[in-house]
Design a protein that fits this description.
The complex is a heterodimer of chains A (247) and B (350).
Chain A: E1 9-18, E2 21-31, E3 36-40, H1 47-54, E4 62-67, E5 70-73, E6 86-89, H2 101-111, H3 117-130, H4 146-158, E7 164-168, H5 176-191, E8 195-199, H6 203-209, E9 212-217, E10 220-226, H7 227-232, H8 237-246
Chain B: H1 2-6, H2 20-46, H3 66-70, H4 72-77, H5 85-99, H6 115-126, H7 142-169, H8 173-188, H9 191-205, H10 214-240, H11 243-251, H12 256-286, H13 298-307, H14 315-344
Helix pairs in contact in B: 5-6, 7-8, 7-10, 7-12, 7-13, 8-10, 9-10, 10-12, 11-12, 12-14, 13-14
The chains are: A alpha/beta (247), B mainly alpha (350).
């Protein structure tokens, strides 16, 4: 697999409210270039909101987020169109149902990154090959299984040549027998040196692939630890309770 | 072994047999056909009179289609000068060629390229510019007028409807309020009233004889009227597109405009397709209302004909013709939209 250079992510003093609900509290997190971080925590703990703040899908009221050399302050509008440093994979895949798999992967490269159609298609086919669904390129999303759709969504995000990949519970909407193929694609990506922030409930993936684990609860980061240490002996009581429940 | 048995074709379902209700319905239809068929055929075809100079020619007791043949030019193009009818034909051909790409699903995208054809059509039928004698719009009429207003208003009403739908969904209070007001006012008034307002009231307030052409005013009114309905259909479609679609598009770096045009709008239009087709068909039939402001469309021409002393009392023939004309076009439109819907549905498996 080709080597890619990731970018670093710096989150400083991040605070976010939905109305009166304080969903992110003083979040600080540094992710080094090429590092793989898994975010764990009970539902409603703010994991998804955190990574949505990183790529600008959510605005926030206090703090700052920097991806590589791009820095975004609180209250600013989400980034405008154009090539993004982050790529995102959603729980519900969110493939465009009116376009074929290949068109899904070339739409943004052609319209947002202004690449030629032929080049974009060639690169998209290479990416589809990489997630092993090149033979499905001319089908529509509804004709694919959930696992295939999610792999297509990974290829679509990679087609914009991101420096950081964000995963929002990428296997939670899948039938159990399809989880493996998506995780395999993510492991392959991790080996290529991409910076990854992964919100997931897949403990096996976290244990094997993550450099560090971030444990969140009630909108704040409770514990950050190397994956091996976290799973062997979590420091915080809340993390211990969470691990006891999911095991 | 289990794999082989899994792909064994399923046993064919037993053929459905006709039930009592089916037989009863069939018998009823047959009885109706036997009862009404022969007299209808005799009246409409066998005993009909096809040509003649006045009602007096129709002595056979059947339908008097002579009223149509003797005024065919007017039915087609109103009082357009007879020796210039070829210009109407050119314009009609251009218009039809312009919308032809829309009959292929992918062709919708190249519809804007048809604009030059529209210009040619307009030049041919209007004349002027020293090449062709001018033919004022007062002369225009007949079915050509229905086609012209129907096509013209359709082409402008859809984009306007999309803008109004967007305006209604806008977070800016002024934009939202204005769109909502326009939609509700236009949708709440009968089209006849709006046409009257445009033809009678508007000139009273227009400064110093500066009244645009009556046909133009009609076109504007019908466009806005239909756009208000289409806006609601499009809004329904937009609200049915999952939020994740726009988010995925923006996460990929498509700005909000491209995310809307390339991702959300195509899906919304597909969802709104049946409702939009309803509007297009309604619009086309609404073009017959322009007779109330003195424009002579095909219904207007025939209304005049049946009040003419020579043809008095032939409403049946005249309106059967109008009904068949509109039915065949609207039926064609609905078949086309059904085909388009099938071709556009990519969310079906297999």
């Amino acid at each position: 697999m080709a080597h890619e250079d990731g970018a670093s992510v710096e989150i400083r003093g991040l605070n976010k409210w939905f109305g009166d609900l304080h969903v992110l509290r003083d979040v600080d997190l540094s992710v080094a270039a090429g590092e793989r971080v898994v975010v764990l925590g009970p539902s409603g703990s703010g994991k998804s909101t955190l990574i949505r703040c990183v790529n600008g899908l959510e605005a926030f009221q206090e703090g700052a987020v920097a991806v590589g050399a791009e820095r975004r302050e609180a209250g600013r509008r989400p980034p405008r169109g154009g090539p993004q440093l982050t790529g995102m994979v959603f729980q519900a895949f969110n493939l465009f149902p009116h376009l074929t798999i290949l068109e899904n992967c070339t739409l943004a490269p052609v319209w947002a990154a202004r690449r030629g159609r032929a080049d974009a298609a060639e690169e998209a086919m290479a990416l589809l090959q990489r997630v092993r669904i090149a033979d499905q390129a001319h089908k529509y999303p509804a004709q694919l299984s959930g696992g295939q759709q999610q792999r297509a969504a990974i290829a679509r995000a990679l087609a914009m040549r991101p420096k950081v990949m964000l995963f929002d519970e990428p296997t939670s909407a899948l039938d159990p027998e399809m989880v493996g193929e998506v995780l395999d694609a993510m492991v392959g990506l991790a080996e290529s040196g991409m910076t990854m922030i992964v919100v997931t409930h897949e403990m096996g993936f976290a244990r094997e692939v993550a450099d560090r684990v971030v444990f969140m609860d009630a909108g704040e980061i409770v514990e950050i630890a190397p994956a091996a240490d976290f799973f062997r002996a979590p420091r915080e009581a809340r993390a211990r309770g969470f691990l006891a429940r999911v095991r | 072994m289990s794999v082989v048995s899994a792909i064994r074709p399923s046993p064919r379902a037993p053929a459905r047999r006709l039930g009592v209700a089916d037989l009863a319905a069939l018998a009823l239809l047959l009885a109706l056909a036997v009862w009404l068929g022969p007299p209808l055929v005799r009246w409409a075809l066998l005993d009909a009179t096809w040509f003649g100079e006045s009602r007096a020619a129709c002595r056979a007791g059947g339908a008097c289609w002579a009223i149509l043949t003797s005024r065919w030019n007017q039915i087609v193009a109103g009082f357009y000068p007879a020796d210039h009818l070829w210009r109407v034909a050119v314009a009609a051909l251009c218009l039809l060629a312009g919308v032809a790409p829309a009959f292929r699903p992918r062709g919708l995208a190249i519809l804007p390229l048809a604009a030059p054809l529209g210009v040619i059509a307009a030049c041919a039928v209007m004349g002027g510019a020293g090449l062709l004698p001018r033919a004022p719009t007062d002369y225009w009429g007949g079915f050509f007028l229905n086609l012209l207003i129907g096509l013209g208003a359709s082409i402008f009403a859809l984009p306007l409807g999309i803008l109004l739908a967007l305006g209604r969904l806008s977070r800016l209070p002024a934009v939202k309020g204005l769109s909502l007001a326009l939609i509700e006012v236009v949708r709440g008034a009968p089209l006849i009233v709006l046409l009257f307002a445009a033809s009678v009231v508007a000139p009273l307030f227009a400064p110093g004889g500066l009244t645009p052409d009556k046909l133009m005013r009609t076109l504007v009114v019908i466009t806005f009227f239909e756009a208000a309905y289409m806006a609601e259909a499009v809004r329904g479609g937009l609200m049915a597109v999952p939020r994740g679609q726009g988010e995925a598009a923006r996460a990929l770096g498509l700005g909000i405009v491209r995310a809307f045009v390339l991702v959300e709008l195509p899906q919304a239009l597909r969802i709104a397709m049946p409702a939009l087709m309803n509007s297009f068909i309604g619009l086309f039939k609404d073009t017959t209302l322009i007779y109330v402001i003195g424009l002579l469309d095909v219904t207007g021409v025939l209304r005049n004909a049946v009040t003419d002393f020579a043809w008095q009392g032939l409403e049946t023939e005249a309106y059967i013709f109008v009904a068949l004309l509109f039915w065949s076009l609207c039926f064609g439109l609905s078949r086309w939209s059904a085909r388009l819907e099938r071709r556009l549905s990519t969310d079906r498996e297999g």
